[in-house]
Fold this sequence. Notes:
By secondary structure, this protein is α/β, with parallel strands linked by helices. The chain has helices at about 15-25, 50-55, 70-85, 100-105, 130-140, 150-165, 170-175, 195-210, 210-220, 235-240, 250-275, 280-315, and strands spanning about 1-5, 25-30, 55-60, 90-95, 185-190, 275-280.
Amino acid sequence: MIILIVGPTCSGKSELAIRVAQNINAEIINGDAFQVYQELDIGTAKPTKKEREIVPHHLFDFVSPNKEYNVKDYQSDARKVIKELQSGHKNIIIVGGTGLYQKATLYDFNFGDEDNEVDMSDLDDLSNEELYEVLKKLDFEATRTIHMNNRKRVLRAIEIYRAHGVTKSSIIQSQNHKPIYEDIVFVGLDVERASLYDAINKRVDKMMECGLLEEVKNLKDKYDTTKHAFQAIGYKELLSYLNGEISFESAIELIKKNSRNYAKRQMTYFKHQMPVVWFNDKNEAYAYILGKVKQHDTNVWSKYFVNWWRRFCQTK
């Protein structure tokens, strides 16, 4: 059985996941885009090493910050772990705040063959507006969901068309948007907005007390901070401070603001993209999950007995 635990940042997802995992013979898979990176610890709010020793955790701390790692890479890695755990008859908990990564793993997302080399050099000197006009001519539907200033996504949509001769929109429309696994439980933690925002602000203050600035300084000295890893909230703002672009106080307030805005985007995505059952109370969510697991186990044993009885009767 697969249990997906989602919700906004600072809602208590990891705590719930560990509690459930201890009671249902489960292992945990990270579902966060930035907790995959090594050494980005404080700002990404990873479970501590002690917490990760309580139950086995997967896909944490295994990608160098110098490496570009995307949703397709995660999809491949996560599905491999799921296959291994299912072969060992383990329950699986996926927990994290990156909805796209989770949906790409659990649903019939097909990214196509991205190994084709495509020459994009003719687009290097185009402005964002000019680049957007190119995409409009190739895949107007894609421009409905991609902002003109999101140059990376605009280029990616153009690259898909050049590589495969079909648009990104047509690839998406050809999929059924259905889960590829049986027996998935979708659970979400919702928190009253004022309480959530207060918790986010306090978490940022706690991260600073725990040495987030020192962590960012060390990473800046060791790695190329233009890489994707350093787009994580908490890191990009403090890098702007260290580069002399904003004041320290502005960086802290920006981290809090960006975290709050991210929480809003997370809730919008989860409430529209997956059939999540929402809970305001972690204890209620815990009881619901255990009930679903018990029901699943009962059904499995019932099917096993029915199949055994049929085979027994056929031998008579």
